[in-house]
Amino acid sequence: MFKTYRNLWIALLLLIVLSPLGLLATGTAFGEWGMDELIDEVGFIPQGLAKTADLWQHAILPDYSISGLTATFSQSAVGYIVSAVVGVLLVAGIMALFGKGLKD
Amino acid sequence: MKAVPVSCRRSLLHGFFNVICLRGLYIFINRGGIYMHIPDGYLAPQAAAPLVAVMVPVWAVAVKKVQNSLKKREVPVLAAGAAFSFVIMMFNLPIPGGSSAHAVGAVLLAILLGPWAACLGVSVALIIQALLFGDGGILAIGANCFNIGVVMPFVGYYVYRLLKGRAAAVSGRGLLAAFIGAYIGLNVAALTTAIMFGSQYHLFRAADGTPLYFMYPIKVAVAAMMAEHLTLAGPVEGIVTLLGLAFVGKNYPELVSEGRTIKISNPEAGVTGNV
User: Fold this and answer.
1) Which member of A2, A22, A49 has the closest CB to residue B90?
2) Per-residue pLDDT for B258 more than 80?
3) Which tens digits make up the pLDDT trace of A47-81?
4) Residue A97 CB: number of other CB atoms within 10 A?
5) Do the chains contact at A1 and B95, CB–CB below 8 Å?
6) Which of B1, B16, B165, B242 gives 20 to 30 Å between its CA and that of A63?
């Protein structure tokens, strides 16, 4: 898995280590607003949105962070790197499993 | 009220919404921008659910196509490529004014492994993002996989193929084609996303006339989305795709050679062996 295309994995590792750079963008993107921000910016909360916005409560690393570990930049950076590792392993793992039955 | 853009004039009639319309544009551009990951709550369930239903057969076809065309030794490339798409989406680039943009990598995957493989890889990345990290909605998975996992790689791939012609992938023309393919792929996907967002405003209203889900007209959604993606996110995607293709081509020329899909007996043939 890692031998043939070693440099691809090294590049991925580098991106994981550098990922906290992605935290430098501070604006809350539209759609990531909390309900109070919606009131502030839009003036009202659409009724359907209020009902369906929090459909999913099981994100284990919400917003690529570890709950309770977001006070400082370095804490957020740890959460971000952990998220990157978990995500990369899972996504690559699923694709590898999918490719198990393939032939040359 | 003199400065109301043309796109908002019709909603002026609605009195109440004229203010929202202006504020919508302002907010999108100045308050963090609008992303292509649709969260839950912004599409009506009756719009989001059918898109999941649309994606199921698309995934089924993608699985079949990839099983038939991908070689076992290319599986690590698919795994690393999908993981790359996941991690590159974490790189939010700060843009002056509080907005941000990030690349997706879908067109790079399509250039390296074909659009169907890109569809699978990006879809898996998007589903993991939604389930584990709350990035993009659960019910919106169909919409997000359609825009980012189908529209983007297919449009980008065919624009790339068209512009590249018979040139090698890692050549001036090939790399330029990759840049433009990625730029256009991302922007067409941004457009379909904006149409999905904005159409909710026109389709779904409460009894008192207020929007039930996405709260701005389609023109505002398209204007805000395209302003950002044509100027910022598009060029970023183009550069990431160009650099990624150059990196892969330099390290593993056999992956970018044209004869790749036909069985290559000598994998060292590389870029020059693609006639």
Assistant:
1) A22
2) no
3) 999 999 888 999 999 989 999 998 899 999 999 99
4) 11
5) no
6) B242
The yes-or-no verdict on residue B99 having pLDDT over 70 is no
Q: For A89, which DSSP code?
A: H
Contacts of B39 in chain A (CB under 8 A): 31-32, 53
- Give strand pairing partners of B211: B205
Measured CA to CA, the distance from residue B161 to residue B81 in angstroms comes to 19
Q: Report the alpha-carbon distance of residue B134 to residue B140 in Å, rounded.
A: 11
- Is the interface score ipTM higher than 0.90? yes
Is B17 touching A (CB cutoff 8 A)?
no
Measured CA to CA, the distance from residue A59 to residue B197 in angstroms comes to 23
Q: What are the phi and psi torsion angles at B44 (to 5°)?
A: -65, 140
Q: Enter the pTM of the model.
A: 0.87
Residue A49: its chain B contacts at CB < 8 A? Answer: 41-42, 212-215
Distance between start and end Cα atoms, chain A: 14
Question: Out of A100-104, B129-133, B180-184, which region has the weakest mean confidence (pLDDT)?
Answer: A100-104
In this predicted structure, what is the pLDDT of residue B275? 35
For chain B, report the end-to-end CA distance as a whole number of angstroms: 62
Paired tokens of A97: 């499993």
Q: What is the pLDDT of residue B219?
A: 87
Judging contacts by C-beta atoms under 8 Å, the chain B residues touching residue A96 are: 75-76, 79
pLDDT(A93) > 60: yes
Q: Give per-residue pLDDT as tens, B6-37.
A: 444 444 445 545 555 565 566 555 555 667 88
DSSP-derived secondary structure for A7-69? HHHHHHHHHHHHGGGGGG--PPPBT---HHHHHHHHSS--HHHHHHTT-----SSGGGS-TT-
